[in-house]
Design a protein that fits this description.
722 residues; mainly alpha; two-stranded antiparallel sheet; 27 helices; 2 strands; 69% helix; EXOC3/Sec6_C; Exocyst complex component 3-like protein 4
Length: 722
């Protein structure tokens, strides 16, 4: 790394020759007069000297402070205040003890704006440069830091010794001038250390030798001042340059971290994209700086045993945390809050962000990037905004579906099935938000899933009501939404099992509702065709073909409905046809006699076979329905009356939901005598009670047929008459 020579203004100890050249005649005359008349201001010399010293030191300090970087003012003030207190103590005690008899003389000039002094006599000889004829200020400017520190340390040690030996009893201002020079040059050296730290991560950087020199100076300072001395002399008090270096590192990290987004207005003005860009720039800068620390800065400091990596790491961690909390205070909306949470958890929290893979982190763990209460507040705010956003998204999905209804277009067919964008939109909405939340924390994932589940549970009934109230209800759309509900139920419940309790009920209810409306459309078409059954026109007409044609056309839509809902619907259609056929056959009407009854039995048997064959060809698995019409046909045409009992037994065992009224209506079709009817009724009653004891009062699930056939009251009157 190149080594720019930073000019450190004003902190230069001059050689005697330079000091003599810088003096004015007036100043020399004033010193001569002071030496000739030592007691001229004995009474109030201390007060006047202190004021003059205060003025001169104030002017020198102000000049230095205007040229030294702002971050060094703290140390400068501490050294200056310590110096001033020492002067005050010395000057206040001097006259009383007989140590100071002359008016203290302030430095006659300040070199480069801080400490050019015209030292005379023994004092000038003590401040001679010792490193190749260079002054301390030159050494600091050339960044020969260790040489400058060693020279200052020798001057400090000599000055302390001379003070202890009462060398300055006759000229106390000489001690003041030399002590101030030493102190200000220490401040200059500290300011140069800060400048080096500030430039280390800059574009030009700092040479590794300079960094090693800095580390050696800090170590040397700690060895020279291991603990405060007993006499409390300000010159020998430790300056804690290690803490000063660490503070400079922290300031440097804070300055670097605040560079991205320097023109940042506010979160509300910039939006989520602006915040994301700012954080991306911040991440690039921090990673690049830490990589430079690990590859270039740490090795340079390591030679002197300096833990630079850990100090820089903690400094950047603290700076990033402070910056993130500032951004969090202004963040608004779901997107901005998520950007912050995601960056903290996944970008900054990635294993290799703070250093190369395999790098050991500090023994003492870094504190959380965001305090627990701040993190909890961000998550809470995010979920609050998210709940409103999810509800709004479902509203948009409903509006999108309504626009499809208004266009009066049939749904698309994909892979042989009706498709509605509803299922894909809802699935993506839930899956993406839950996945995004899971990338931040398991707790946020669970909360997001609950929000999505609750919103979907409220949306499904709203959607169902809106669709069924629209003019878009048709077999294709109903089939598409049956598929959509099944897809949602399968995909979401399989991916998020914890949602079953909340989602199962509304999704199943919506599916059943769509199935019901799908069947009702077909039933309205088929219902009038059954009126001809068991009439004389029925004996001569091929009434079944148009009915079965409608069934076949309807099942064409069912082929584009996903299983098992298509099979369930087909079986319901099969059951409806058989049920309605029997309901019409058992209605009271003019009975068949003789040959008509035989023709009717044959016709009914042919119908039963045609219905069974048709539905079997369509794929219906409800084969248990095939015997119902056939048994009634056999009873109607049975010539051997004793076999009627056998047919009734088959009917009762095949359909446990058949009741006494149904048996009476069937017997009424056959026109048997009263005594035989009584005998058959008694026998069937025993069978009905026996079957009820075996299978219970209810028919097996899904096998309900006669229970839904209502025998008219007119038939009961006719049976009574018989």
């Amino acid at each position: 790394m190149p080594s720019p020579q930073t000019e450190t203004p004003g902190l230069e100890l001059q050689s005697p020759k330079e000091a003599e050249e810088s003096q004015t005649p007036a100043q020399g005359s004033r010193r001569t007069s002071s030496r000739k008349e030592p007691n001229a201001h004995c009474k109030d010399g201390t007060r006047l000297g202190l004021g003059s010293l205060r003025q001169a030191f104030s002017r020198a300090s102000q000049r230095a402070l205007t040229q030294v970087s702002k971050e060094d003012t703290g140390l400068f003030r501490r050294s200056s205040c310590s110096l001033f207190r020492s002067f005050r103590q010395a000057l206040d005690e001097g006259p009383a003890a007989g140590h100071f008899q002359a008016t203290p003389e302030v430095p006659s000039g300040v070199m480069n704006g801080v400490s050019q002094q015209a030292s005379t006599g023994a004092a000038s000889e003590e401040l001679k440069p010792e490193a190749e004829g260079k002054s301390v200020a030159d050494l600091i400017t050339e960044r020969q830091l260790l040489a400058a520190f060693e020279q200052l340390l020798r001057l400090e040690t000599r000055l302390v010794a001379e003070k202890a030996s009462r060398t300055f009893e006759q000229d106390p201002t000489a001690f003041a001038r030399r002590a101030m020079d030493v102190c200000l040059h220490y401040d200059g050296l500290a300011a140069e250390l800060s400048a080096i730290v500030r430039e280390t991560l800059g574009s030009d950087g700092v040479d590794a030798a300079v960094l090693a020199e800095l580390a050696r100076v800090v170590n040397a300072e700690e060895e020279a001042h291991p603990s405060p001395p007993d006499d409390g002399d300000f010159l020998r008090t430790p300056r804690h340059w290690r803490q000063h270096w660490e503070e400079a590192v922290r300031r440097s990290a804070q300055e670097r971290v605040r560079r991205p987004g320097a023109g940042w207005a506010s979160a509300a003005a910039e939006g989520a994209s602006g915040l994301a860009q700012l954080l991306a720039e911040l991440g690039v800068l921090v990673r690049r700086d830490l990589q430079k620390v690990w590859q270039e800065v740490q090795p340079a400091y390591a030679a002197a045993g300096f833990p630079a990596w850990e100090v820089y790491l903690r400094a950047f961690h603290s700076a990033v945390a402070q910056r993130l909390q500032e951004l969090a205070r202004d963040a608004r909306g779901c997107e901005q809050l998520y950007v912050l949470l995601d960056w903290a958890a996944n970008v900054y929290g990635s294993p290799d962000f703070l250093g190369p893979p395999g790098l050991a982190l500090p023994a003492e763990p870094l504190p959380p990037l965001l305090a627990p209460d701040v993190w909890a507040r961000l998550e809470s705010d995010y979920t609050s905004f998210l709940e409103a956003k999810i509800t709004s998204c479902f509203d948009n999905i409903l509006q999108l579906e309504q626009s499809h209804w208004a266009a009066a277009k049939d749904p698309e067919v994909l892979q042989g099935l009706y498709q509605a964008p509803l299922s894909m939109d809802v699935h993506m909405l839930v899956a993406e938000h839950v996945k995004a939340a899971g990338a931040i924390s398991a707790e946020l994932e669970a909360t997001t899933l609950r929000i999505c589940t609750r919103a979907l549970g409220l949306f499904v009934p709203r959607f169902e009501k809106a669709f069924l109230a629209s003019e878009a209800v048709s077999e294709p759309h109903l089939g598409a939404y049956i598929n959509a509900c099944e897809e949602l139920r399968t995909s979401i419940l399989s991916r998020f099992p914890g949602t079953q309790e909340e989602l199962e009920k509304p999704l199943v209810a919506a599916t059943c509702s769509f199935q019901k409306h799908l069947l009702q459309g077909l039933q309205r078409e088929l219902q009038p065709l059954f009126r001809v059954v068991c009439t004389r026109d029925w004996l001569t007409q091929d009434w079944l073909r148009p009915l079965m044609d409608k069934v076949v056309r309807f099942t064409g839509h069912l082929q584009r409905v996903a299983q098992p809902r298509a099979q369930e619907t087909l079986q319901e259609v099969h059951r409806f046809v058989v049920r309605e056929y029997l309901a019409q056959a058992l209605k009271p009407r003019k009975r068949f006699w003789a040959m008509e009854r035989m023709r009717g039995s044959q016709k009914m048997s042919l119908d039963a076979q045609a219905i069974s064959d048709t539905f079997q060809g369509l794929g219906s698995e409800a084969t248990w329905l095939d015997q119902a019409i056939q048994c009634v046909a056999e009873i109607l045409g049975e010539t051997y009356k004793d076999d009627i009992q056998r047919h009734l037994e088959t009917l009762i065992r095949s359909y446990p939901d058949i009741r006494r009224d149904h048996i009476l209506a069937i017997l009424a079709l056959r026109r048997l005598g009263c005594r035989r009817n009584q005998h058959l009724l008694q026998h069937t009653q025993d069978l009905l009670r026996a079957e009820a004891g075996v299978v219970g009062a209810e028919a097996p699930r899904g096998r309900v047929l006669f229970e839904e056939i209502k025998v008219p009251s007119a038939m009961a009157v006719r049976i009574t008459c018989i």
